[in-house]
Every structure is written in structure tokens, then in C-alpha cells.
Specification:
heterodimer; A: 623 residues; Rossmann fold; 22 strands; 36% helix; globular; B: 336 residues; eight-stranded mixed beta sheet
Chain lengths: 623, 336
């Protein structure tokens, strides 16, 4: 075969692996995300469970061939429940030298590295920072390198269509995908169909990409026949029967908000200002006008939250969404919603801070902001989503709390959860519990601050209702009449009741139980948000090795589940891994979990499973 | 005759709340005019919402017996926007001031006007921060002495009407608090305009900035230093209507000429649909030229309409979630 060099690593027999991590990287113009998405879909169709994560460059259009212009896509698929995108890659596809140099570190020793040798020109090597080609200096000896001139092979495969060199070369991502499909036994037909549909108006482009896909596959068959490489079988995962789709956290969150509106018979008014990595929620909802969703791209973060509050005052489900810096700007208005006791959802897709920080990198460092970021005594319920699919449920839960208790609710997601995708079994909406909330209608004895004796929520009198005309605002209100009041006793009473109302939400939260492991024992790992996947996998692995460790994951961060402190008291040790310096830890200690310890990482990167396994081993010793 | 069971009188729009502006404040006059307007237009209390920010003028909603929302500093236009997004059928009046609307909330005011949300914006301009005890404001004239500018202010003021026109407002008007008939007429015209209607009300703060508008509102100066705009009528002013506005090709602006009462030869005729004229009128200041009062510009266009309502609902969320690429895992599918 031409151009194939299997370097050093011994040839394995036909291989079966329970899970595989593939990372595809190339220039931002190479269409990496497109073929990554295709690999995800065909893997799902092959019966695998999976999780994927796109790693875009921060620059919108970086110069070709540069390291900062590299776009990557990581996918972890396999025959068991997949909880993370994988600590390390089993295979890297690098479509240029810059993609290789920036992504090699994540490939395990002995892993496969497919490179487009046609791009390893002096100029590209120089741009990537290689003095000598890594294909020639032995620096890749620890890997199984497959160096194919993908550029030339793609041009040859598409020559008949006479697209011109530039357009033809755009097909090389599909050539690489074809080879990956061969390696993992993926069916090409769904991708052929997708291409045909995608390029209905440019059939030659569809044909060229299909030709490239097939050529890559044929190349794999040929090297296999020549004994130069082996394919890898990945078994089906046990998946519950049902209808599935792939969903990102941002999509699931958007749909969860729409679901909360549907379940409560409210108009969803979603007001947002563009910010990374929160904008995809706005983009998803902006396409849903035909189900009655109103989206509003406001002039700034403050206007966005204020518009959501205005919608809530008018009887809608008002939602605003941003990331940390934007949430900072919204805080004064959130205080208004606390004071006027209006339902409101504030979504924070967290990113690395402070200030602009690292907008595309993930962190869990806004918990303190959510809990304490406002002036005055202004308690707000806080929830966190742990996975893409979980975003749907947590958004509905945020709606339930906001509408039932007439309060703003902060929902914490993060850049990782928002952008990661995974197969999602579509919920049966008829089985989801409705959110019972109604507009107040009775003028008899009306005051805008009449309260439900159980929830302490105030009534919701909505403009347009005769006989309930009233005035509210941010000034303190009289407990009984709702009129302006500066009375010391009244302010104390109102402060107390606002706090009591939020604390009382705990009564409606299901008792906290371990996600894995025993109730009570030697060690509990307590997490929240997107650390769910790595913690869950680490605990599964360590339990299989005989460690008696439990995993407890928190959805409700304020108030906590009523039994939480008692549950945690049942463990000799409590470890709290967080992508911050210990923000939940501080809360747990304040709540009486004095023996909790932190495991903290603030690098803009998620936890690796092995870091958590190591931490468990360090605490528990040998078993 | 009347389609309402009982026509409401101005007093029917009063609340039981004690009005807490300083005695003699211009706001009282505006409140009185507003109640008259609401009665005259037959406003339904339940469908009317007053939204305000923070400042003396922003207490206004407490004194009108409709729905009212006293919000946070500068944000009334943003909150009102949400109200209109949730229910476009409500009649929304935004009450703001020169500090609230042009300083801390200038951004929101600009965007509300350019988007052309269907509402009325009343900006009470008194050229001072009254509620915080008299600091100079973004409309204060240069050299204004105040607690924060003991040696006189050095920044150039913004003109509310010019700001509104520059922001793309399709209705811009001016009125004086104490000239009740003019104020009532202007507010009714603002209400009749479909889209964002901006009204600057010159409001006298008797405590911190008394008589700051005297150069055109004082009894002896109003006739000579105000021109009352009427669409289609010649732009004449002065005690005996002997002065008029004419186009000045030299400056591409307006100049004052002498005319014979009853014969307005050479005088411009007001065209409220002409934006260039509105800009020119908005730039006039006494003593050289009169303040233009009344409706400077009234030229409706499409209002902001998100188009998402019950009628537009063509599918359910479940249809959305099922669209695109889906696959089925059959019962009994096992790990291979």
C-alpha cells in the first residue's frame, strides 16, 4: 500500500474493546465538527452508548495551519453506559501538523494516530512549531502511526467530479471518517443519506464527500487485507428500549424550559444577551416560535433579566440566560424579583473566571455568586445540571420551584455540560408531572402579597385581570396590604418570611440517596453539576476493585435536600470534588458536615476519571 | 353611546396612597393631566400598566389605580419590554426622568425606541437628581452648580428630544408640566400613535432647580419663546403671532422671520411626518429661537412584534424533540 507506515508497535490481532475514545482534530476549516457528529450518530446506530465534546478554537477564523486554529472533537463510545468523554484517546485523527502537536498528549501510549501526511509540508511544520517532521524523527514511536496522504487520496477519489482542488480538498474530513468507519465497523449508509440530504442543492458536493468517505473505507479494507492494520469491534451497550436522539446540554436545557412552560400553561419569554458558552440556549429557543416561545435578544444582560421579570409580572414564564460575567450584571434585577416575589429562571452556563477568564473552558466557580451575589438578604434557590440529558429535567424542576414558590431560581450549567452531547431517550411528556400554578382572579379581600399558607408563595395577580389592579416594586412592602412600608417590624417579618419560603422548598425535594453505593460507610464522594460523569465512572471502577465508596450527587444546592446532612453524617469520610476552590465544601461545612474534605481543580479542564480514582485510593488505602 | 358600562372620571384613576412629592412639584400637574387623559381615552384600568424606574417621577405608578410596577434605576424600558412581550395587548406607559432615562438607563431607552415597542414613554426632565438631593444630571446645562459640581458642571448636556429622534423614535413630543391643555393634547397624541411614543415633559423641581425652564415657561416669556406645533399649521409664535419660522438655506436650519398676523407668507408649515424638520425644531433654544412644543414628529411604522402567540402555535414541543435524527432501540436489544 502507498503511504501507510505502521511504525514499531506490534500488530494486534482483530481487537475487541469495551469502549473507545476517538479524537478528531484539524484546522477550523476542515469540517471536524461535522464528521465528529456523524461518527456519533453512526455509533449510536451501532448500539453504542456515547458522549461527545467539541473543542472549538476561541478564534473565529484563525489563520490556516496554526495551533490556535485547531478544532477538535472527542467521542467516547462503547458497550457499557458511557459517563465521560474519556481521560485519554485511543485514536487521534490529525489532519495537519498543528492538530497533531496540540492533541497528541491526550493519546494513550500505544494508541493509534492517523495523520494526513500530505499536510506535513515544511511550511505547515513550521507553523505548528515542529523543527523536524514528527513522522521522521521517531517522536511518535510510542504510537501506532498511520500516515496516509489523505489530501492526495481525497483529490484522486473525487477527481471525476472536477470540483477544483480547493473544493475537492474540503472532502478530506469524510475520507478520514471513512477510514474511522472501517476501523470500528460503522455503517456508512446513514452518513451517505445525510450528505445527500444536506447537499440537496449541490449534488456534486454530496457525491464528492460520499466518494471520499468510500475511498477512506476502501483504504482501510486494503490495509487490513495486507495485514497492515486491524479493525476494532465495540460491542452494543445495554440501552433501555425507546426512541432516542442525540442532544447537547444546551438543547436539553432549552427544551426543558419549553417543557416547563408547556407543563404550566405559560408563555415562555426567554430574554438573553449573547455570551460564550451560553448562547446555544438562545439559538435553540429562537427556532421555537412555532410552539409559542418568545425569544428576545436584549441590548445587554441587565435588559435581558429585566425583560424576563416584566414577562413574569405579566404571567409568563420569564427566563434569562448567561454566563458568569453576565450574571454579575443581572444581580440587582434578581434582587427585584426576590423582593417582588416573581417567578424567574436564571440560567448560568458557567465558564472559567474571573472577568473574561477563559470563556471556552469549563469551571464550577459561580456557586458562591449564585448563593451570595446579591445585595441585601436575598435568598434564591439554586439547582445544578449534571449531564446533557439531566439539563431537561433540571430545567423543569427550576420551573416547578419558580412557579410554585414565586421566586427567582438560578440554574447552574457549565460549558462542558452545555456543549457535550449524548444519546437521550425522549421523555413521554404525558407522564411528566404538570406544574400547577394559576393566576389569582378573586378581587375579594385581594392584596398582592396574600400568601399560600403551605408554600408561603404570594398570589400571582396578572395585568389584564379586572379588580386586581395593584402597584408593586422594589421598595419594602407591608406584609398584609402590599403597600410601601418602612416599618421596622414589618421589614423583619418580610425578611424572615422570604427566607422561610426558600428554606421551605426543601420539603418538596425528594430525599437524597446515594447514586451508587451504600447508605453510610467509609467514604462518600459528594459532587454537583458536570463532575457527575467522572465521579460516577471512578466510583464504579473503584467499587469493582472492592472499594466501599459511595457517590452522592446534588441537584439542589439551595436549599439542600432535608436529609442531606444526616445522610452525609453516616460516612466516616466525605470527599467533595469541585472545579473551584471549595465552594460547595464551604456550604457543607456550614451545614454541619464538618468532616468533609475538598478535591479541587481550577484549570479550565474537567476532572479525569483517574484523578478521582487516585483520590479514592489515597483516602482508603489498599483493599 | 359609551361602550363601557360606566365611564370613568379622572378621579376614578386615583389610588388611596398619599402623594409624597414636595408641595408645588411639577409632578402633581402631570399626574392630574394623566388622570384626565386616561378618562378621556376611556382607559380600562385592568389593561393599563404604568412602569417606572427610580427617581421622584418614578413614584408615579403608586398614584394611578391601574397596574403598576416601580422597578429599578434605569430599567423601566427593559421591564416594560418584557411586559409587552408577554402580553402585547396591554396599554403600557413608561415613566422616567432625565437621570433614570438618559443616564443610568440611556441604553434601554435607546433600544426601546429603535425597536418601536408599542407604548408611551414620559420623560420628566427637571435637569436634576431630585431624590438624591440635587446633583446635576445629564440634561443639566454647562456650569450648573450642584452638590457634586460646586464649581459648576463641565459636561455638555444631552437633549432628550434629539436623543429620541436619533434613536429612531417615530413619535417625539414636548410639553410643559403646568401647561395642562398642551400636556393633555400631547399625551393623547402619544397614546394614539401606534409604536413607541416619546414625550419630554419639562418639569419644575421647586426644591433643587426652581425655574430652570423659566426662559420659555415663565408667564411673560412663554408666548415669545415657545412655538406650539400643529401639524399642517404655519409655524408662527410670539405674543401677537408676528414671528414665524422659515427655512434658512445658509445654515440648512431654521430662522425666525417677522410676519403679519393672519398672513404667514414665508413661514414654514409644520409637517409632523418630516424627520429633518423634527430635528431642526428640536435644536431650537431661546432666546435666539423658540422652544418647539407639542408633537415634533409623528410618523408611524411597523411595531416590534415577536409574532409568537397562540395563533402561531403550529406544533408541540414533542414534535420539536422528535424532529431531526432519531433512532429506536427495540425492546430486548441486548449487549452483543
Amino acid at each position: 500500500m502507498n503511504n501507510i507506515q505502521l511504525q514499531d508497535a506490534p500488530r494486534a490481532a482483530q481487537d475487541t474493546r469495551e469502549t473507545v475514545v476517538v479524537r478528531i482534530a484539524g484546522d477550523s476549516g476542515d469540517g471536524i465538527q461535522v464528521v465528529g457528529g456523524q461518527l456519533g450518530l453512526t455509533s449510536a446506530l451501532s448500539g453504542n452508548d456515547l458522549e461527545t465534546f467539541p473543542d472549538y478554537p476561541s478564534e473565529v477564523r484563525a489563520p490556516v495551519g496554526t495551533t490556535y486554529g485547531v478544532s477538535a472533537y472527542q467521542i467516547h463510545f462503547g458497550g457499557r453506559h458511557i459517563k465521560t468523554i474519556g481521560d485519554e484517546a485511543d485514536m487521534l485523527v490529525a489532519l495537519n501538523p498543528a492538530a497533531l502537536i496540540t492533541n497528541l498528549a491526550i493519546v494513550r501510549k500505544g494508541g493509534r494516530v492517523l495523520v494526513d501526511s500530505g499536510t506535513f509540508t515544511a511550511r505547515n511544520l513550521d507553523k505548528a512549531g515542529y523543527a523536524v517532521s514528527p513522522l521522521e524523527d521517531g517522536s511518535l514511536d510510542d504510537y501506532q502511526v498511520m500516515a496516509a496522504d489523505i489530501s492526495r487520496l481525497t483529490l484522486e477519489a473525487t477527481a471525476e467530479l472536477e470540483l477544483g482542488k480547493k473544493a475537492a480538498l474540503r472532502c478530506k474530513n469524510f475520507w478520514a471518517l471513512g477510514l474511522v468507519y472501517w476501523m470500528f465497523g460503522r455503517d456508512r449508509q446513514p452518513t451517505r443519506d445525510w450528505l445527500q440530504q444536506k447537499f440537496t442543492k449541490a449534488p456534486d458536493i454530496a457525491k464528492a464527500n460520499t466518494a471520499a468517505l468510500d475511498a477512506g473505507h476502501v483504504y482501510g479494507e486494503a490495509i487490513e487485507a495486507a495485514g497492515e492494520a486491524t479493525s476494532i469491534a465495540v460491542p452494543r451497550a445495554p440501552m433501555a428500549a425507546g426512541l432516542y436522539r442525540s442532544v447537547t446540554g444546551a438543547e436539553a436545557l432549552a427544551w426543558g424550559l419549553a417543557a416547563a412552560a408547556e407543563l404550566s400553561d405559560r408563555k415562555l419569554v426567554f430574554a438573553s444577551y449573547p455570551i460564550t458558552p451560553a448562547s446555544p440556549v438562545l439559538h435553540t429557543l429562537a427556532r421555537l416560535k412555532d410552539i409559542g416561545v418568545v425569544t428576545f435578544q436584549a441590548e445587554d444582560e441587565i435588559a435581558a433579566v429585566c425583560a424576563a421579570i416584566g414577562a413574569a409580572y405579566t404571567g409568563g414564564l420569564g427566563v434569562t440566560s448567561s454566563s458568569g460575567p453576565g450574571i454579575s450584571l443581572k444581580q440587582e434585577a434578581i434582587g427585584l424579583a426576590v423582593s417582588t416575589e416573581l417567578p424567574l429562571i436564571i440560567v448560568n452556563t458557567q465558564r472559567a473566571g474571573p472577568s473574561t477568564g477563559m470563556p471556552t473552558k469549563t469551571e464550577q466557580s459561580d456557586l458562591n455568586q449564585a448563593l451570595f451575589g446579591r445585595h441585601g438578604e436575598s435568598p434564591v434557590p439554586v439547582l445544578a445540571a449534571r449531564s446533557p440529558a439531566d439539563c431537561f429535567e433540571v430545567a423543569i424542576e427550576a420551573g416547578r420551584i419558580a412557579l410554585t414558590y414565586m421566586t427567582p431560581v438560578i440554574l447552574l450549567s457549565d460549558g462542558f455540560v452545555a456543549n457535550a452531547s449524548a444519546p437521550w431517550q425522549l421523555p413521554n411528556m404525558d407522564e411528566v408531572e404538570r406544574i400547577k400554578v394559576k393566576n389569582h382572579a378573586d378581587p375579594e379581600g385581594f392584596s398582592p402579597f396574600l400568601r399560600d399558607p403551605d408554600t408561603l408563595a404570594r398570589v400571582w395577580p396578572v395585568p389584564g385581570t379586572p379588580g386586581l389592579e395593584h402597584r408593586i416594586g422594589g421598595i419594602e412592602k407591608d406584609f398584609a396590604s402590599g403597600h410601601i412600608s418602612y416599618s421596622p417590624e414589618n421589614h423583619q417579618k418580610m425578611t424572615d418570611i422570604r427566607a422561610e419560603k426558600i428554606a421551605g422548598i426543601a420539603k418538596s425535594i425528594p430525599a437524597l440517596e446515594p447514586d451508587q453505593g451504600e447508605t453510610g460507610g467509609d467514604l462518600a464522594i459528594v459532587g454537583w453539576g458536570s463532575t457527575y460523569g467522572p465521579i460516577s465512572r471512578a466510583v464504579t471502577t473503584m467499587r469493582a476493585k472492592g472499594y466501599k465508596v459511595s457517590h452522592i450527587h446534588l441537584r439542589h444546592l439551595n436549599p439542600f435536600a432535608a436529609n442531606q446532612t444526616e445522610l452525609l453524617a453516616g460516612y466516616a469520610k466525605v470527599l467533595v470534588p469541585e472545579l473551584n476552590t471549595g465552594q460547595l465544601l464551604r456550604q457543607l461545612k456550614a451545614e454541619g458536615v464538618g468532616h468533609a474534605e475538598g478535591l479541587n481543580k481550577v484549570s479550565g479542564q474537567p476532572f479525569l476519571v483517574r484523578e478521582l480514582e487516585q483520590a479514592i485510593a489515597n483516602i482508603m488505602g489498599a483493599v | 353611546m359609551n361602550e363601557f358600562p360606566k365611564a370613568l372620571k379622572p378621579a376614578d384613576y386615583a389610588t388611596d396612597q398619599e402623594v409624597r412629592w414636595c408641595p408645588g412639584c411639577g409632578d402633581y400637574a402631570v399626574l392630574k393631566a394623566m388622570k384626565t387623559v386616561l378618562a378621556d381615552i376611556g382607559a380600562k384600568r385592568e389593561n393599563t400598566v404604568f412602569v417606572s424606574g427610580i427617581g421622584c417621577s418614578s413614584r408615579f405608578p403608586y398614584y394611578i389605580d391601574t397596574y403598576g410596577f416601580h422597578t429599578i434605576h434605569g430599567r423601566a424600558p427593559a421591564i416594560a419590554t418584557g411586559i409587552m412581550l408577554a402580553n402585547p395587548d396591554l396599554d403600557v406607559w413608561i415613566i422616567t426622568g432625565d437621570g433614570d432615562g438618559l443616564s443610568i438607563g440611556g441604553n434601554h431607552l435607546m433600544h426601546l425606541l429603535r425597536r418601536n415597542l408599542n407604548c408611551q414613554v414620559l420623560l420628566f426632565n427637571n435637569e436634576t437628581y431630585g431624590l438624591t438631593k440635587g446633583q446635576y444630571s445629564p440634561t443639566s446645562r454647562v456650569k450648573t452648580r450642584s452638590p457634586s459640581t460646586p464649581a459648576g458642571s463641565i459636561d455638555h448636556p444631552v437633549d432628550p428630544a434629539q436623543f429620541a429622534l436619533g434613536s429612531g423614535a417615530r413619535f417625539v413630543a414636548r410639553a410643559v408640566d403646568t401647561q395642562i391643555k398642551q400636556l393633555v393634547d400631547v399625551l393623547k397624541a402619544a397614546h394614539a400613535h401606534r409604536g413607541a411614543a416619546f414625550v419630554e415633559i419639562f418639569q419644575n423641581c421647586i426644591v433643587f432647580n426652581e425655574d430652570v425652564f423659566d426662559d420659555f415657561t415663565a408667564r411673560d416669556k412663554a408666548a415669545g419663546n415657545q412655538v406650539a406645533l400643529q401639524h399642517g399649521a404655519p409655524l408662527v409664535f410670539g405674543e401677537d403671532q408676528t414671528r414665524a419660522l422659515a427655512f434658512d438655506p445658509q445654515t440648512l436650519g431654521l430662522s425666525a422671520i417677522d410676519v403679519v398676523p393672519g398672513d404667514h407668507k414665508g413661514a414654514l408649515v409644520h409637517d409632523a411626518g418630516n424627520r429633518n424638520l423634527a430635528f431642526a425644531l428640536s435644536q431650537m433654544t431661546p432666546p435666539e429661537l423658540p422652544m418647539a412644543m407639542g408633537v415634533l414628529y409623528d410618523n408611524p411604522t411597523e411595531v416590534y412584534d415577536v409574532g409568537a402567540n397562540d395563533a402561531s402555535r403550529k406544533r408541540a414541543l414533542v414534535d420539536v424533540m422528535r424532529s431531526g435524527f432519531t433512532w429506536t432501540v427495540e425492546p430486548g436489544a441486548k449487549a452483543s
